[in-house]
Amino acid sequence: xxxxxxxIEKVExxxxxxxxxxxxxxxxGLVVIPxxxxxxxGGDGTNPQSSKxxxxxxxxxxxxxxxxxxxxxxxxxxxxxxxxxxYDLAKAFMPGPLTVILxxxxxxxxxxxGGLDTVAVRCPSHPVAHAVIxxxxxxISAPSANISGRPSxxxxxxxxxxxxxxxxxxIDGGACEIxxxxxxxxxxxxxxxxxxxxxxxxxxxxxxxxxxxxxxxxSPTLEGTLKEDEHPxxxxxKYKHYAPSSPLVxxxxxxxxxxxxxxxxxxxxxxxxxxxxEETKYLEDKLLLPIGAKNDLRSHGKMIFAxxxxxxxxxxxxxxxxxxxxxxxxxxxxxxxIRAAAHTVLKIEKDxxxxxx
Length: 357
Ligand code: TXA
Ligand code: MG
Known about the structure:
The protein is α/β, with parallel strands linked by helices. Helices cover 31% and strands 20% of the residues. The chain has eleven helices and 16 strands. The strands form two sheets. The chain has an eleven-stranded mixed beta sheet, sandwiched between helices. A five-stranded parallel beta sheet has the order 14-13-15-12-16, sandwiched between helices. Helix 1 crosses helix 5. It starts with a strand and ends with a helix. Bound molecules: threonylcarbamoyladenylate and magnesium ion.
């Protein structure tokens, strides 16, 4: 397949490209679009054939449902049964990195929802995504634009790596601002009491959700531990995710102890290190992948998937990274990293030398 690649910085200067993308989607084709979270592999969410094509291009099991992207939060009404809590969430967080699971209407085929009676709805804030959806006049179903099991793509370079020749068009909108996929919540109706279940943490944090809804439950599958016979509320949670090809080990310990460990590991192993900027001056400049200052979680979010993909290119013996703290945006980072590492966490104790300091 011939893949057209177009670079769009300002929507108003690329109206004909936007029209082109919209018409490919309306005609059943696939277009990769940039969003503020990660790139999305888009098709017409109302067309079962488009959804089938998405699963095929991504190599994704067809029981893992797609998110539909809408131009305005009120458009959810056309595709799903909404409620007051949906509009409270929309007012607080849309357009933006929040996905809400709602009971679906018939216009959304089961091919799009992986056979479920619910549909995931998201209204992205990225101007290019917004323009393509608006112009297409249909909801755009889009999973993250990565081959199933690989880290999500946060720049067009990685989209091209995975999808050149497999889709009709790739829109290069630069680096994604957030870099982590949207927060996913499901609305639960227990009679009078409306509550939310947090299925996937993202840039809309648990605390932010609690400001809008009194009862927010964290899904037990969020840390990626699921037994063979358990069915998660979000089918995607059961699949292995974001795994780099070399083993990834997360280090848990005090900063100085972890740094000492890394310094000594660099001497004996060909290891890649996903580290904080402050640490680079103490480490050899060899397979070093900084993700920003220690406290700059936004930067970690923005860079982590690119760093994991770079690890694949470097083929190190082992990859080390810090175990993220679970507070605020850290929960989203923790969720991605713990799954990428298949739960391999190494506890680093303060060594004997340090104890005396
Ligand atoms: O930021 C994002 O959400 C990106 C951009 C492109 O919008 N999309 C994205 O899609 O991350 P995807 O398909 O990679 O992840 C969506 C997750 C999957 O784990 C899927 O199982 C879950 O959402 N999901 C979708 N529909 C669902 C539904 N009806 N019920 C429960 N989980 C659902
Ligand atoms: Mg994904």
